[in-house]
Amino acid sequence: MKRKHLTLLLVFAFVLLLAVPALAAPKVVMDTQEVSYETPLLIEQGRLLVPLRPFSETLSGAVTWDNTTNTVIVTRQGVEVKLTVGQTTVYVNNVPETLDVPAKIINGRIWVPLRFISERLKAKVTWDQAAQSAVITTESDSNPIYIFGSSVSFAPFEFYTADGKITGFDIELLNAISEEANIDIEIKEMEFPELFPALKDAQIDGAISAITVTEMRQQIFDFSVPYFLYGQCVTVRSDNQDISSFNDLEGKIIGVRTGTVAYDEVIKLPDVKVVGYESVDEAFQALKDEALDAVISDFPGTAYYIREGNKNIKIVGDTIINQPIAIAFPKNNSQLPDFVNDALAKLKESGEFARIYKQWFGVEPPQYLPGNIPTLNE
Fold it and tell me: Quick one: average pLDDT of 142-154?
């Protein structure tokens, strides 16, 4: 009797199994179009895995494979994802993250978790349970936003207006680049010295803040072509008769903005007391208050500051430490410098760069800007 009941239960279970439809094989839909792969996709530990190279190419990403280390690098729209086969640690713009399921090699192909790669490459992913489909959106509503750091206290390059809006030559130029390159850019306000650690750790995508290009900085960061050339000047109170040039600073108290080329040079001077400030406005105020004998700062910003009504200080002597300035980027981690340089070239050709330059500095830009500065290459 028991055997008969067991047989009936087994038959009933088999009928139920036949009545439940099997789950469809998982698939990928990208921007409403189903993506075909040569082999069926895999689900492991609840994660959908896809073959990396054909998937990345569908996303218009570039793939580089290092056979010696079993490491693959995928780049798309300013993002670099670096994975090593069999390891759960992955680096996104050099910042470590952890995978639930590591990359693996199956039949000569590298397989990776679809959601992680898609979202890190700035595409939107949803899961359609009924259709067993990963739905990926790469259109404009998921375009990446590039974060640019800027120290918004350095007129006329970047500063706040009376009504609290950020403006300046750098800001207007960056907006023009954004429009020309058809990329979304967001400005993150930071203190000037904070920009360089943030760039080094790829916490920001770029920085624009009248940043001078030096040999040391070029070893650590990537730069756009120069878009401005300026020198440092010596500023004193209007009634000062003792200081007429850079050569008269011995024994004086000098104010300078920290983290700048001027600061690096001034601290080398003998018998000079150097006081660092986070903004040049603070240094000028200290000069007016007679806490300093002179301030060394960039000529365009200083001239603009004086033109705005600060007639109780003056510029003396010739400019020194003439340097190009450019937009800075994390080293070797995106195609963003190429996008920016292409946009600068088009802005130069159209005359828009010259219009912006003249608006802020009152003169036409040199013919070589934006671009490499001839005198620096001789």
Answer: 83
